[in-house]
Amino acid sequence: MPLDYEELDYQETPLGALTLRRRRLRSLDNLEVYEIILGTGYLMSSLFTTVEIALADLALARLPANSTDLSLVVGGLGLGYTARAALNDDRVGELLVVEALPEVIGWHEREMVPLGRELHRNSRCRLIEGDFFALAADQGFDPDRPGRRFHAILLDIDHSPRNLIHERHQPFYSQSGLRHLQSFLNPGGVFAMWSDDPPDPDFQSLLDNVFPTTETRIVTFPNPLQDRQSESTVYLAQCAP
């Protein structure tokens, strides 16, 4: 019988203490759950993946159905559910996943997390160590091709535009920050972002000022720990064709 709780890794990082743990939830038929904690806050749980998957699905749904060889960026690796959802779309030819914490990339490369083997062995997927926000403010996300444009950029790092993991991310959530991000999107390209907070009118207004087409979606998902429905926000913004 596996342990009810097991700490798989603990590392001190510039952003705080990083923990990977595995729990067995007896209340949910001994379901095995993986969790990533940074400091005192949860970054990711394999119990709640609906919105991470929806982030990729909603963005890709905005691109032409007859597209081929799409190139995507995912900001934030976590447990990899957004990345896998993107790769499940046969139109995606290349996916770059930008992750600031090398420890998280290491978990996938050593196959310590459920999707590690699937992602790091996929020839269409590149795991890139880097600060998404610093790269977005500079020459872009592909270290081999500065300034490269993509069909979609998906962001799942901060808890919301107001609840940031680190204050240095703040300049991204501005008109100038979003305009610079837009320069790394192809015509008709899509920017999508997860938020754990309700829709933020100020951030929606920023998106409206930068992109010609925007949409905000509420994604609901079951929360068995609290016996209720929970919800998160996905922001979508699209460049002109």
3D architecture notes:
By secondary structure, this protein is an alpha/beta fold. The chain has one domain: Vaccinia Virus protein VP39 (Rossmann fold), CATH 3.40.50. About 25% of the residues lie in helices and about 35% in strands. The protein is built from seven helices and eleven strands. The chain has a seven-stranded mixed beta sheet. Strands 1-2-3-4 form a four-stranded antiparallel beta sheet, with no helix packed on it. Helix 2 links the parallel strand 5 (about 70-75) and strand 6 (about 90-100). The longest helix has 12 residues, at about 50-60. The chain starts with a strand and ends with a strand. The model has no long low-confidence stretch (mean pLDDT about 95).
What is the CATH first-level class name? Alpha Beta
Question: Helix tally?
Answer: 7
Tell me the domain tally.
1
Low-confidence stretches: none
Comma- or semicolon-separated keywords:
alpha/beta; Rossmann fold; about 240 residues
Describe the secondary-structure layout.
Layout: E1 5-13, E2 16-25, E3 31-38, E4 41-45, H1 50-61, E5 70-75, H2 81-87, E6 92-99, H3 102-109, H4 116-120, E7 125-129, H5 132-136, E8 150-155, H6 175-182, E9 185-195, H7 201-210, E10 213-223, E11 228-238
